[in-house]
Amino acid sequence: MFFEPKNGHSLPHNPFNALVVPRPIGWISSRDRKGVDNLAPYSFFNAVAYTPPQIMFSSTGSKTDQDGAKDTLANIRDTGVFCVNIVGKDMLDAMNATSETLPIDVDEFAHAELEKAACETINCARVANIPAALECELIDTAVMRGGQNTVVFGEVTGIYMDDAFLVDGKFDISKFTPVGRLGYMDYAMVTDPFELIRPDAV
Q1: What is the pLDDT of residue 78?
Q2: What is the mean pLDDT of each run of 10 residues along the chain (202 residues)?
Q3: Domains of the chain, start order
Q4: Which residues are CB-contacts of 115 (< 8 A; sequence separation ≥ 6)?
Q5: Alpha-carbon distance 142 to 144, whole Å?
Q6: CB 180 within 8 A of CB 187
Q7: Nearest 5 degrees, angle CA 100-CA 102-CA 108?
Q8: Who contacts 95 (Cβ-Cβ below 8 Å, separation ≥6)?
Q9: What 3-state DSSP class applies to 54?
């Protein structure tokens, strides 16, 4: 089959995000100007540069109690900082709980019964007992086509890694089993990593 997205499709569910898979989950924590912490998962997320390390995520849609944005995007615009929490299988249910649309003054850490830890380089909380976290300063945002589609770019200013997952000088993802987003309501776990050497690797 072939279809042009502008004309719709004949399927019961949109297949677009089932084709770009698996996607890492950026579990983004932020804080508003009043000090209320927010935590929400974003599946349009990835790393985009090594030096300096930089990441991106995309916020789509908006909330009725925010002006054309979701809480995460509004907080980042106000404060210029945020944290990416890396999701393992042990945090899957808590991550899903924070995807619920809640009022602007609700702390998702409390809602999901998650312990907080303070970030080191930015004024923000991260999830305690997380495998890893990336503390970020806002670089820029870019408004994309369509309704309320905004890409957020951040520079990583601090990296937290749980020492339990450092093995022989490498961060061993098999110790915590990362979770990725597939299409529809489907997820995947990384359970069978393997090494593939590039032909021009020295």
Answers
A1: 96
A2: 92 92 96 96 96 96 81 96 97 96 94 98 97 98 91 98 96 94 95 92 75
A3: 25-162+170-188 (2.30.110.10)
A4: 109, 127, 128, 129
A5: 6
A6: yes
A7: 75
A8: 25, 27, 41, 87, 179
A9: strand
Closest of 3, 40, 41 to residue 19, by C-alpha:
3
Number of residues that make up the chain: 202
Integer CA distances (angstroms), 136 to 109, 120, 139, 171, in order: 19, 11, 9, 20
Give the Cα separation of 80 and 97 in Å (integer).
25
CB 59 within 8 A of CB 150: yes
Whether this prediction's pTM lies above 0.85 is answered by: yes
Question: What are the C-alpha distances in Å from 168 to residues 163, 165, 172, 176, 185?
Answer: 11, 10, 9, 16, 36
**168 contacts 83 by C-beta, under 8 angstroms:** no
Spatial CA neighbour of 124 closest among 156, 166, 170: 156
Read off the DSSP letter of residue 88: B
Which amino acid would we find at residue 116?
Answer: K
Q: How many CA atoms lie within 13 A of 25 on its CB side?
A: 28
Stretch (H or E) spanning 187: strand 187-189
